[in-house]
Every structure is written in structure tokens, then in C-alpha cells.
Design goal:
alpha/beta, TIM Barrel, 5-stranded parallel beta sheet, two-stranded parallel sheet, 10 helices, binds zinc ion
Length: 286
């Protein structure tokens, strides 16, 4: 662990209350390290339970999983960095799953052997269940990004809870995975209410530290340059593989077009690897 990481960890300990955080870390570590195998699936070596192709296509009842334990304390702020090692990064992809772009992103990640976290929108999971199952089958982490991508500051506590609970439910049922333990607020707007709701549902808030604003389609080279200039050890990189569409809107050629992101990933991921970086997942256990 580097000095910087020790400082960050101490800051978090202080901000959260040392005893409480240690309890939370311990329970979170156990939770992530030993997920039980789902009925009808295998989880060799403690890996997340993943469906076989046959199970993914099945319409049989989804296995039931225990809900995550509530966090021991309400975090004061989301996590902006990972703390896995001196040359670790985390790649996160928001607003999918997309039938057009998520499979393209998965192909790039497979090419470079990278595991990422997909913060999915519940309404998009409902429209694209097979794409979510592709994400799960490839071994990636799925996080909760609300049902309809609202500004959480405009919602009541009950509405915030509904947005989050519905999304965790459909991820678990459609993906046949344990309920997510990571949450990202739309636009990074983590309100106090949403932090409290997340804590009660066992969800750890995860923000980012590198944002190339790829969703605005600034050009592939701009996305590449922004990521490469900002990335440093521990960075959590934000990209987008989807968008919330209204009925009749196309993913291709408009605001939801993610072809620049896909092209940028093909360029910057090998450069980061060449620079000695490896990729990990945002993890509350540290
Ligand atoms: Zn988003």
C-alpha cells in the first residue's frame, strides 16, 4: 500500500468513524469473497455465480439471494478511487445495457482481458435482458444506477428508495446474480438521502475520478486524450456504453451514440496496459 493510499484510507477511517468502518469493511469483504453458488449455477473458486448459456436463456424462476447487509455507517462521500495496488485502475461504464454498444464494449474488454463495472439503468435492463446476461456471463461487475436516471435531488426518500430497489431487483432476477453492492447516482449527484438509502440497502456509493465526458461525443481523440492525461494510480474512469432513450429514439447517430467511446476504448486501454496499469473493480473492502 502506498503512502498516498494509506493517507486516503486514514481519511476515510476518520470521516466514517474507525470502528464502524472496520466493521463495514469486514462484513463487505466476507460478502464479496464468498458468494454462495446460485441454485443451478456454479461458482468455482469463489467467483461470482454466473449463468451457463442454457441457464441464461431459461425462463425458469430466478434463484433467490439474500439482500446485502446494511452498511455499518452512512458514508459521508462516495468512493472516488480504488485502493487495490500501486498501478491499479477501475473502468466503469454507465447507462446501459445497450443492444448496440454494450456488446462492442464487451468485445474490446475481452480482447484486452479487462474486467469492468457496468452501472446499469433498470429500465434499460428491462428492455435488454439478454445484454445484461452477456455482461454477467463475461464476468463483469454490475452496479445499480437507478431505474430511470433521475436527478435524485428532485425526489422524495420513498421515490429514491423505489428507484434503487427496483433496479437491484431486476439486476438480480434477470442477471441471476447476487444483488449489487455498488451504487452510482445519476450525474454523480449523491444526495444525503440517497446515501442513507444506499447504506440501508447495503449499497456502497461509487463516483469517479476521471471523466472524459464521452457522452457528449467530443470526438474519439478528445476522449482518449482526456483519459490518458488524467489517469493515475487508483483512478476510477467513467465511460458510457448506453443512454436512456425515449420511445422511437435511435441509439445510432444521435445523443445516445457511443461509437466514439468504443473507438476510444480500443485506443486508450492498450496504452494504459503498456504503461503498466492493471484493472480492478471498485471494492468496498479495503
Ligand atoms: Zn448515468
Amino acid at each position: 500500500m502506498s503512502d498516498r493510499q494509506i493517507v486516503v484510507s486514514r481519511r476515510l477511517l476518520l470521516s466514517l468513524g474507525g470502528a464502524s468502518l472496520l466493521t463495514a469493511c469486514g462484513s463487505a469483504a466476507q460478502e464479496n469473497a464468498t458468494p454462495p453458488a446460485a441454485p443451478g449455477t456454479s461458482a468455482p473458486g469463489g467467483a461470482p455465480a454466473q449463468p451457463t448459456p442454457a441457464a441464461a436463456a431459461s425462463t425458469a424462476a430466478a434463484p433467490s439471494f439474500p439482500s446485502p447487509a446494511p452498511l455499518a455507517a452512512i458514508p459521508e462521500e462516495p468512493e472516488y478511487y480504488v485502493h487495490a495496488g500501486p498501478k491499479e485502475l477501475a473502468l466503469t461504464l454507465d447507462d446501459g445495457p445497450s443492444p448496440t454498444y454494450t456488446p462492442q464494449v464487451l468485445a474490446v474488454l475481452r480482447q484486452y482481458g479487462i474486467t469492468a463495472t457496468f452501472f446499469v439503468i433498470g429500465a434499460n435492463v428491462e428492455k435488454n435482458p439478454d445484454i445484461l446476461r452477456q455482461v454477467v456471463a463475461a464476468g463483469h461487475r454490475v452496479g445499480n444506477h437507478t431505474w430511470s436516471h433521475p436527478d435524485l435531488g428532485t425526489l422524495s426518500e420513498a421515490q429514491v428508495r423505489s428507484e434503487i430497489e427496483r433496479t437491484s431487483e431486476i439486476i438480480t432476477r434477470v442477471g441471476r446474480v447476487r444483488p449489487p453492492t455498488l451504487f452510482r447516482a445519476p450525474g454523480g449527484h449523491f444526495t444525503r438521502t440517497s446515501m442513507a438509502v444506499c447504506a440501508s440497502l447495503g449499497l456502497n456509493p461509487v463516483a469517479w475520478s476521471v471523466d472524459p465526458v464521452d457522452w457528449s461525443r467530443p470526438g474519439t481523440q478528445a476522449i482518449v486524450d482526456r483519459v490518458l492525461s488524467a489517469a493515475k494510480p487508483g483512478s476510477i474512469i467513467l465511460n458510457h456504453d448506453g443512454a436512456l432513450l425515449s420511445p422511437g429514439e435511435s441509439e445510432v447517430g444521435g445523443f445516445a451514440d457511443r461509437s466514439e467511446t468504443v473507438a476510444a476504448l480500443k485506443t486508450y486501454l492498450p496504452r494504459l496496459i503498456d504503461a503498466g496499469y492493471t484493472f480492478t473493480l471498485p471494492d468496498p473492502a479495503r
